[in-house]
């Protein structure tokens, strides 16, 4: 099978009936960029910049952040890289910033983390913004913010980056040719505010790991709950379908970057509700691409619509039967 996947490397992820899916990878370390060539993926859809912070004993200096980002951009060549600004706190504790469990937060996943922390301690965000702008000088920069709960948080984060851009412009530094600003949708409240958010952003990326834990009030790291809440549950798929439809209405590209997309039945369902951009773990690119190339999307869509309207709780069995019957 692995050899089969290798043969798929240079074939595009297109469904049998002609929908081109953008298939990107999730990454976070310097060496992960090599996976782009190995998998033939379309780009890095989620670069988790906090990994550098997590593996470091002290706060990474701006210069070392910049070196990492530039190396990744260079390795990616013509392919886009979406940098997600630091998402620390929650389950990602740091020895040199007091966050998460270490400072006695009872619910660190819902605590002082990611953008919340970055907006309060904006020195961190300023340094990172400068590092990203410098690293992408002369090229396109894609930057997205994690754990946005309300649209104003996007504005505040973007303003920090823009301020750094103006500072560099004032010093006649080479700037990125273009900056695309994205928001992650991981907090359910933001889904209710899409009409306010979408006109401001260049792309939306749904983080289904956090989103589903908040939607079901079920800790993503608690093994006792792992089997109980299914990514293929009607509530999740309906919720995602609404986000995808609204984004398309506003003409804003929308993708899924949670681990859900790396599982073949889940990614099939995502395509069935209209998702055309996935960012997944590199090892999943082969299997997911094989699924896409064997899928007739036009046949799946009405079937999935019917299932979502049926009141059936167990879509996994139904979808898996359908996939088998249709050679997906
Ligand atoms: C997510 O929450 O789905 C996501 C992609 O971000 P992370 O897994 O890094 O929290
Ligand atoms: Mg997340």
TrEMBL record:
GO molecular function: phosphoenolpyruvate-protein phosphotransferase activity
Keywords assigned by UniProt, alphabetized: Cytoplasm, Kinase, Magnesium, Metal-binding, Phosphotransferase system, Sugar transport, Transferase, Transport
Cellular localisation: Cytoplasm
Highest taxon above the source species: Bacteria
Keyword Magnesium among UniProt keywords: yes
Family: Belongs to the PEP-utilizing enzyme family.
Designated name of the protein: phosphoenolpyruvate--protein phosphotransferase
Source organism (scientific name): Sphingosinicella rhizophila
